[in-house]
Amino acid sequence: MEEIKLNKTTVLRPLQQSDVSDIFHAIDTQREYMRKWLPFVERTHSIEDTLKFVRAAVHDADRGDYTFVIVCEGRFAGLIGFKDTDKDNCKTEIGYWLCEEYQGRGLMTLAVKALCDLAFGKLKINRIQIKCAVGNTRSKRIPLRLGFMYEGNERDGERMADGRFTDLDIYSKLRTEK
Description:
The chain is α+β, with helices and mostly antiparallel strands. The protein is 31% helix and 34% strand. It has helices at 20-29, 31-34, 40-43, 47-60, 107-120, 137-145; strands at 4-5, 10-14, 67-72, 75-86, 91-98, 127-133, 149-159, 165-174. An 8-stranded mixed sheet has the order 1-2-3-4-5-6-8-7, with helices on both faces. Helix 1 crosses helix 4 (47-60). The longest helix is centred in the first third of the chain and has 14 residues, at 47-60. It is globular, with a radius of gyration of 15 Å.
């Protein structure tokens, strides 16, 4: 997979093992901010935990689950990627997170749009879904802004860092709707 330019200062670059330190640093220095919506933060105790994630994500690219680093102004800003890709049924899910200081710039909307273009174009995907915790308003605005359709609610769909379960709103977009 090649780099995708989002704007003059921001690109999506395929995840590499050399990104481990930047990812762990972002998680480790922003735990309080990130743990509200990202359960994996509580399970990320060391750089080794991040290394395991990156190795698995790089390996999953063979199945079509590509993960990209969001690089803004030459610095690590977050991650975005495909997950649970089902090649037989031409569908995938997009997951994403962004460091706090890059919020509110429209970067994630650009990144999700770029992945939709990649999925519907080069990858020949027919259906993309995004799941967002019910209370995560900022995250839910992204699929809505990009014309995704609200499909419904997955009850107790994700276990949060504090052990409680939260419902997930499910949004989808089909190739015919791009």
